[in-house]
Each structure stands twice: as structure tokens, then as C-alpha cells.
Amino acid sequence: MQELHDAPLAPLTTFRLGGPATRLITATTDDEVIAAVREADATGTPLLLIGGGSNLVISDKGFDGTALRIATPGFTLDGTRLELAAGENWSDAVASTVEAGLAGIECLAGIPGSAGATPIQNVGAYGQDVSATITEVIAYDRRADEVVTIPNADCAFSYRHSRFKSDPDRHVVLRVRFELEDADGLSAPVRYAETARVLGVEVGDRVPAAIARETVLGLRAGKGMVLDAGDHDTWSAGSFFTNPVLDEAAYAAFLTRVAERLGPDTAPPAFPAGDGHVKTSAAWLIDKAGFTKGYGSGPARISTKHTLALTNRGDATTEDLLALAREVVTGVDTAFGIRLVNEPVTVGVSL
Hints:
The protein is of the alpha+beta class. It has helices spanning 30-43, 90-99, 118-121, 163-166, 193-199, 209-222, 248-262, 282-288, 318-336; strands spanning 2-8, 20-27, 47-50, 56-58, 63-70, 75-78, 81-85, 102-103, 124-125, 128-129, 134-141, 146-151, 171-179, 181-182, 245-246, 271-272, 278-279, 300-302, 310-312, 345-347.
């Protein structure tokens, strides 16, 4: 277990932003993770968990406490059953399952970060969410001071949400177990219209899993969503805002605002979200509110490839990024009466 003091945190995040931590511990085994958490809890020391750093916005002042970087390796595949240690690189794990001819997470290729973060955010993209394949999560329960196994049904998964996200100080994810599908090398049914269009198939069709993965990687790269140190469009947290889910009254009010601003024939993106709710597109809202690709003149700007990504152009500060985020939130609210919610976790700052 490595320990550093006054340690820079910016290099551990995909934004490359944030000040130092008072102490940084890197744990490579579950026992080391648990020991570090127990110590922090016993001494009342603030604790920040870091995996791949792809979903963090850290204050320029840094973190006054212990930052615990979870770097535990572990990939075990037994038939269609997959177990990943929390520190395992997610994108690499997806590639390995596709190479093994299994389906279920191939459209989650290229998502940066570590496996332990996937159940917290119920990570998803291009028609797949990890909640569809996770069977159970092995976690350290800080209140009970014990390792627990939490089945899928008790994870309270919903759109980009889970029990782990709603109560972030209770559980530390150690391992995640999945049940994948052996479809003779084919993908799961394609659920996302854009993916189906690029593949030249109908929604619901299957294609070779390797082709589905490569197609998704291409789509993500075209939007600046695949990490590339030389491309500032990827110095981001991916999608900065979640897609709004509206009830019937809010959706009706939204349509009225759209008609007033863009004309009665304008139809915004709309997807059923269950129980009379409708999900619309945050990227569309941002664009139609006037924040187009490349928007901004400072060191933090909207990606030139995708309006949903806010980026560090090389020498931004966290405050630069937050100023841009607040401008977008206010602009969308003014234009459409919808307040966007940030997807990344903020540390020592807020919108």
C-alpha cells in the first residue's frame, strides 16, 4: 500500500483538475482498501474514494483528508459469469468479454474508469446499462463494519442511480459480479437507434459482438468520449449532465416552451421512461439554448465534438469549469424551464 502526502489529485482525474490531497493512499488488495477505510472512519478523517477518476470534479483547493485510490486488479471469467475487482479497468474488461464471445456489455466499450464505479452510477450507454447484467455487488459496509454481498434486486438501480449513489458514505464497492450471455459470438439485441443505423440493422437485431463494440468505440471517439491524452475534447468527464426525466405536467410545460422558442413544428427528442415519465436529451437542450459545439472563449469550453461534454482545454481550473457549467444550467433553465443535473461527483465544490 503506497502512501503520499500533499499529493496532486489532478493527474488521477480525466478532467486533469483539482488541488492536492492531504494524504493519498493507493490500495491494491481488498484488505488494504478495508484497512484504509476503517482507519479513516476510526479517526474521523474525511475520505475520498478514487477509481478511474472519470467522474470527479475536485476543488482547486484539493481535499483536506485521505484520498483512497482503489487500484485492486482482478478479472475472473467462469463460463458466462464474470467477476471484476473494483480497480479493474472497465474498458479493458469489456474488450476481454467480447474476445471471449460473450454478450451483455459490449456497447459499454470505451467508457473510462474502473469496474467498481459501474454499479454506483448504473453506468450505461448505447442501449445498455450495467444493471441488466450485474448479479451482485461485494462491498464493505462502513456502518456494520463487515463485507456484504448485495444482490441486484437490493441495489435500487434506476437511470444513472443506485443505492450506492444515494448513500455514498455507507458502502465501498470491492467486487462486481455479472451474468453475461453466450450468443455464439453475437451481441445482445441492439437497443439504440443510432447504433442500429450505423450497423445497418434494425433495432432488436443482433450482430457480431466484436463489430458492435468497434462501432460503439467509433461513435464515442467521434464525440470525444474515448480518452486521448493529445485531444483536449477528451479532457472531460464524458457526459456532464444527465438526460432529464419529466413527469406529464413538466413535459407538457416543456413542449409549450419549445413551441414558443423554436416554433410549433419542432419536436424535441422524447423517450418513454416508465410510469408516465418522458426522458429528453440534455445535449439537445444545451444546443438549442445556444450553447453549440466549441462554445466558450476561456480555458474551459464545450467540446467541439459533443455539446454534452465540458472540457479542459489544457490550462483550466475547476472554477473555470464550474463557471461554464453554471452558465449552461442557467441558459437551459431560462430557455426551457428545465434545470440540468450534473452527472460527475463534485468534491469541495457545487454548481
